């Protein structure tokens, strides 16, 4: 039996408070809104009770943020794409930001189990004046549990229409990609942190974000497997390869905190669920 779950999450500013309204169909929902940073920023945890996707399962996530709202979204644990026979397992996330909206999209990693056939798509539309920090973390198999990614395919798609497109298919049989120093070099975690602006950012602002990312890369000793760039005036991105998730996630969290301080003058405030 396949699951097709849909969640629509809507952020609005009501009396100087960012408020989340949602509706859902199937096993996908949002837990209670939290305000550890005050009323201006609404923290939410996205929950998928089945815990993973198999062939034929589809998760559709639609997020909208209105002018003046600020939402932060994370998950309680990793997403999992299990072994599939036949049909694809598909997750589609669409984010639409109105003028003046801010969003932080910070889900924990997606784990690709051996034998999966999966697609994970993220599309972001930002109106002028809107801004977002987000990340995408993928783990190929579970190396520490002796469960390597030996079979299967995974398509990763991240897009800001007309501005930026990251799209790649990972096939477990493609050893040139997985093992070559020109590919993943044996690493099994691929991660990206990105800043998206609906208005072209000033060069000095983008250079400040790049400098923060590169300083963190140097401090973590990941000069050979991480890099930061600005492929467009509305995009800054940090890319990381790591043998497992933990070192990549540590780097992403540090740079995310530095970026939100630089961009929005906000202190580090990690979601409470990360500490559990």
Automatic annotation (TrEMBL):
Annotated localization: Cytoplasm
Major location category of this protein: cytoplasm
Gene Ontology molecular function: nickel cation binding
Alphabetized InterPro entries for the sequence: UreD
Alphabetically ordered keywords of this record: Chaperone, Cytoplasm, Nickel insertion
Domain of life: Bacteria
GO cellular component: cytoplasm
Function recorded in the entry: Required for maturation of urease via the functional incorporation of the urease nickel metallocenter.
Assembly mode: UreD, UreF and UreG form a complex that acts as a GTP-hydrolysis-dependent molecular chaperone, activating the urease apoprotein by helping to assemble the nickel containing metallocenter of UreC. The UreE protein probably delivers the nickel.
Membership in a protein family: Belongs to the UreD family.
Protein name: Urease accessory protein UreD
Protein's organism: Variovorax beijingensis
Lineage of producing organism: Bacteria, Pseudomonadati, Pseudomonadota, Betaproteobacteria, Burkholderiales
């Amino acid at each position: 039996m396949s699951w097709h779950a849909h969640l629509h999450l809507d952020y609005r500013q009501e009396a100087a408070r960012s408020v989340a309204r949602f509706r859902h169909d199937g096993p996908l929902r949002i837990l209670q809104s939290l305000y550890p940073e005050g009323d201006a920023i609404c923290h939410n945890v996205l929950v998928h009770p089945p815990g993973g996707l198999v062939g034929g399962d589809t998760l559709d996530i639609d997020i909208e943020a209105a002018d003046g709202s600020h939402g932060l979204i994370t998950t309680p644990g990793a997403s999992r794409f299990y072994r599939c026979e036949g049909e694809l397992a598909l997750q589609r996330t669409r984010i639409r930001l109105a003028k003046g909206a801010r969003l932080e999209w910070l889900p924990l990693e997606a784990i690709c189990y051996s034998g999966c056939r999966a697609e994970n798509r993220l599309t972001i539309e930002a109106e002028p004046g809107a801004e977002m920090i987000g990340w995408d973390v993928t783990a190929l198999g579970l190396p520490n549990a002796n469960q390597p990614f030996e079979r299967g395919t995974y398509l990763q798609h991240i897009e800001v229409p007309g501005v930026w497109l990251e799209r790649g298919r990972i096939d477990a049989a493609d050893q040139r990609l997985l093992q070559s120093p020109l590919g993943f070099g044996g690493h099994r975690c691929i991660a990206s942190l990105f800043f998206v602006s609906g208005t072209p950012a000033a060069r000095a602002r983008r250079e400040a974000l790049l400098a923060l990312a590169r300083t963190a890369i140097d401090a973590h000793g990941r000069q050979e497997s991480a890099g930061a760039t600005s492929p467009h005036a509305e995009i800054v991105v940090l890319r990381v390869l790591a043998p497992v998730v933990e070192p990549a996630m540590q780097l992403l969290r540090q740079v995310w905190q530095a970026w939100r301080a630089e961009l929005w003058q906000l202190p580090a405030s990690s979601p409470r669920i990360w500490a559990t």
